[in-house]
Structures are given as C-alpha cells and as structure tokens.
Design goal:
22 strands, alpha/beta, globular
C-alpha cells in the first residue's frame, strides 16, 4: 500500500513538472523536446536562455541571466544534460554547458563575481565584476559542491572532483580536484578520441 501511494505521488509530481515545463518553455529563446524542470525552480531572464532536448534540471536549482536581451542567448544548456538539483547557473556575459554534461548536487557556475572593495556599502549593493564567459564541454562531469569561476573552460569529457573550486582551464579528458582545482590525471587525448571516430556525446 505504501509503495503504491509513493508511486502515485511520484507520478503526480512528474506530471506537474512536465506541465510546468511545457508552459514555461514558451518564454525561453529555445526549449527542446523532453526537457524537464523539476519544481521548485528559480528562473530569471529566460528569454536569454537556450535549453536543448532531453535536459533535466533538478529541484531547487536556480538559472538566471542578469541582464536578459531578447535575441541574445547568454545561458545555453546542450542536449541531454542533467543537473541533479540545488544547482546554480548565473550568467552576465555567457555560460555554456555542452551536450550530456552531468552536474551533481550543489554545483555553482558563474561568469561573474560580486564586487566588494567599497567598505561603506554592503557587498550586495556593489554590483558585479570580473565578468568572463564560462564553457563546460560535452560529456563533462562535475561532482557534488563544485564551484566554477568566471573565464574558465572545462574540456570535453573532463571530470571535476567533489568540493573543487575551478579557477583555471581544465583540458579535455582530464581529472581535476582541489581548491583551487589542479589536474591530477589525463586519461585520454582529444586526438585519441578523434581517431577512434566515435562521437560519445551525441
């Protein structure tokens, strides 16, 4: 009995989230088929967001574009990407996630920093600085509690260990860990993958 009630509750929530996604998706610059935003979710500037097909955005996530402009995409999420929940993607200039990127819980990705040099004002009143685009390549995996700083490129198939703070570029098919994150392993090269002739992220 308890299992059947739990299953019915899950189906009810899933149906609610699908209906919400279908309705809100019309306001995005692009919103692919099969994409699901799991409630609750916080959204800002959806007219400057492009989300591909079969994307999953887990509950309690926050997607925002600070100064949205119609016709200008500042936040892009590729086909098949999955965000477990409690994730933040915040774009002032450009945040791009490729295809089939995997974000664990509590991942934070931003292309800007808070200004804080004026001691007479609260940090929240000082605006932003350090704006630089962020790119996360196809098939990358960011483990739990990862923070990605402005101006960073994380390569295709790269793996970022839990609790890491990524402040510099990570090559394709590399493992990076720590705060600040450092590459500790290179498990393949782009040339090796290209020579195999297989697109593993399609």
């Amino acid at each position: 009995m308890a299992r059947s009630l739990a299953t019915a509750y899950w189906h009810l929530r899933h149906t609610r989230d699908k209906l919400f996604s279908l309705c809100i998706g019309r306001g995005f610059a692009a919103f692919g088929a099969g994409t699901l935003l799991e409630l609750p979710v916080r959204l800002g500037g959806v007219e400057s967001m492009s989300i591909g097909s079969d994307v999953f955005v887990g509950a309690n996530s926050w997607l925002q574009v600070l100064e949205p402009r119609t016709g200008v995409v500042s936040l892009e999420i590729g086909d098949g990407t999955s965000m477990a929940g409690n994730c933040v993607l915040s774009a002032a200039a450009g945040v791009r996630l490729g295809r089939r990127v995997l974000l664990a819980r509590n991942v934070y990705v931003s292309d800007h920093l808070h200004a804080y040099d004026d001691p007479t004002r609260a940090v929240m009143d000082q605006g932003i600085e350090g704006i630089a685009p962020v790119e996360i390549g196809d098939g990358a995996w960011l483990a739990q509690n990862v923070v990605v700083s402005p101006g960073v490129r994380i390569g295709r198939g790269a793996v970022i260990g839990a609790n890491s703070v990524v402040r510099s570029d990570v090559p394709d098919f590399a493992v990076a860990v720590g705060a600040p994150a450092r590459v500790v392993r290179q498990f393949a090269s782009a040339d090796e993958v290209a020579s195999a002739g297989i697109d593993t992220f399609g």
